């Protein structure tokens, strides 16, 4: 794939994640994909891991948006810089809903 196609795929991942698009995950997330996220209490591996992450985050936060600031590619590697925003309306890893708005800076290296 070209660098532009790889960048488009990363952008599409965030749209699919925001929308909870399990069909997209099954098609484009490799079975051996691993998301290294030390802030999570569980492993995110393959489409099922992404689906679990989606269930956890969508269960804890409403009005989720993924504001992509930039996507940079070099060879077959892509770096995305974005902000995850939402409202904390459900329990998240033991923390009850607060109703507050969250705004988290994210960098994903794919």
Question: What amount of the residues lies in strands?
Answer: 35-45%
Range of helix content: 25-40%
Order of helices and strands: HHEEHEEE
Mean pLDDT: 95
The helix tally amounts to 3
Shape: globular
Structural class determined from secondary elements: alpha+beta
Q: Compute the gyration radius: what is it?
A: 14 Å
Sketch the major β-sheet.
3 strands, antiparallel
Biggest sheet: strands side by side, in what order?
3-4-5
User: Multimeric state of these chains?
Assistant: single chain
Runs with pLDDT <50, length 5+?
none
Overall strand count: 5
User: For the terminal residues, how far apart are their CA atoms?
Assistant: 14 Å
Explain what you see.
With 110 residues, this protein is of the alpha+beta class. Helices cover 35% and strands 35% of the residues. It is built from three helices and five strands; from the N terminus they run ααββαβββ. The chain has helices at 3-19, 22-28, 46-60; strands spanning 34-35, 44-45, 61-74, 77-88, 101-109. It has a three-stranded antiparallel β-sheet with strand order 3-4-5. A two-stranded antiparallel sheet has the order 1-2. A hairpin with a 2-residue loop joins strand 3 and strand 4. It is globular.
